Every structure is written in structure tokens, then in C-alpha cells.
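Human: I would love a firmer grasp of how sequence relates to backbone shape in proteins. Take your time, and here it is.
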Amino acid sequence: MVTLKTNNREMVTLFNGLQKVSDLQGVRFGLVVSKNIRIIQQELKDLEEASKPSSKFIELSQKVNSLKDDKEAIEKLEEENKELVDARRTQLDEIEKLLDGDIEINLHTITEDILPEHISSAQILEIDKILESGNI
């Protein structure tokens, strides 16, 4: 295992990288990836909860999406729901602050010998924070 001292934003990036490689073949690789996904999910659970929009905002968003390119109607709808829109903006500002918050987390390392044969360099870059350097 490795202890990472980073911030929530980088942890979200690592989580997304693990998601991208989660369908690659290899039992040992798959075990390490799935364990790390669960650990990170647990650690970021509060952040995920805090970022969920209210049901009223979701309704408003659906109405806005249904208007497609009618900018005038969209502006009118947003103005009529100014408090709701402002509350969501404030919520997103708070999430940005939380993303920059520090985190210390223990994760399982991925060793060179369990890397799938058909992993790309782009995929490796996504998960390099937990790669155990050997003769790579």
C-alpha cells in the first residue's frame, strides 16, 4: 500500500482513471483496481453528497434543456428562478473549495507484473500515482 497526501481534486482524477481501466483483463489487476475504487468512493462520499443539485434545481435544468436554443426563454426562466440559480452557483463554489482540500489516503499499489498486456500509455498516466515503480 501507498499513502498519498494530495487533494480531493487529484483524488477525483485518480478515481476517474481507475474507472477507465476497470474493464481491462487480469484478475490481480482487477482486484487492486476495484479495491482502490471502493476506498476512494468511501473517502469522497461526503464530497459527492455535497455536490448533488436539489430536486428543484434538477426540474429547472430539465426545463432549460427542453428550451434548447431559445436563449430569451432560458434567460427569462433563469431570472424567474434567480434564488435557485444563485443557490446552485454558491453550492458549486463550495465544491470547488472542497476539491482543493487536502486528503491523506492509503491505496493499494499496482505493480508492473500485474499490468494488463493491452494497457495504453494514456491509461497508465491516469493511474500513475499508484503504480509501484520497478523496471518500468
